[in-house]
Design brief:
Blueprint lengths: L1 H24 L3 E7 L4 E7 L4 E7 L3 H7 L5 H18 L4 E4 L8 H11 L13
Parallel strand pairs: 1-4
Antiparallel strand pairs: 1-2, 2-3
Helix pairs in contact: 3-4
Length: 130
């Protein structure tokens, strides 16, 4: 039990470390990803104004019928496409990717790639963000 408590504390520490670094070093809006076993969701947040610009989730009624099961890469690609379209419609093109301590592979990577393909500038691998 002690090992699991230690792992949970390290996950929480990593989550805040990644998010705080994105907030500190970027003036762009943040694309925040939340992932659970059955669902995935994304929000674009403007930290200067403190508002959510756009959001998409596998729990949204409009997207739920198109997606079906929300815990796979196909669902993550649909959410990435939806969040990119909503952001471009709201006038936001450049965002900083906040993965909240989740490793960049699987569903998280699929969501980011789908958002890039639909007009959102997340920045390439290794680029410094403004």
């Amino acid at each position: 039990m002690k090992k699991q408590i230690k792992l949970n504390k390290s996950r929480i520490t990593r989550k805040f470390r990644v998010s705080n670094a994105v907030k500190k070093f970027s003036t762009r809006a943040r694309l925040v990803v939340f992932r659970s076993h059955k669902h995935i969701s994304a929000q674009i947040i403007d930290d200067e104004k403190g508002v959510t610009i756009a959001s998409a989730s596998t729990l949204d009624k409009a997207l739920r019928s198109k997606i079906g099961y929300g815990g796979n890469c196909r669902a993550a690609a649909k959410i990435g496409e939806a969040i990119a379209k909503k952001a471009v419609a709201a006038g936001v093109v450049k965002v900083a990717f906040d993965r909240r301590g989740i490793r960049y592979h699987g569903r998280v990577k699929t969501l980011a790639d789908a958002a890039r393909d639909n007009g959102l500038d997340i920045g390439g691998k290794g680029e410094t963000q403004e």
